Amino acid sequence: MSEKSGGSHLRMLYAPPIHHCIAKGDLGEMKSLAKEAENYLHQAGDVSAALETLKIEIAKLEAK
Question: Which residues touch 21 (CB under 8 Å, ≥6 apart)?
Fold first, then answer.
């Protein structure tokens, strides 16, 4: 989730809202969403790698 600049509007940053934004074709909104997503990824780090590590640790514990 990301807070939109200058307000308290929260926008979920996952595929459906991004695809909806693209379909609307509003260049300003698309640029704004791209900046929000880039900021989120910068703050969140590599979530995919962290998830894979988590799955490995879950599997280890389940195997015991």
Answer: 29, 30, 33
The string of pLDDT tens digits covering residues 37-61 is 899 888 888 888 999 999 999 999 9
Distance in Å from the first CA to the final CA of the chain: 36
Backbone angles phi, psi at 39, to 5 degrees: -60, -40
Question: Which range of residues forms the domain containing residue 45?
Answer: 2-63
Q: Give the total number of structural domains in the chain.
A: 1
Q: Which residue has the tokens 């807070």?
A: 3
pTM over 0.85: no
CB 2 within 8 A of CB 10: yes
**Helices (H), ranges, 1-64:** 15-24, 27-44, 47-63
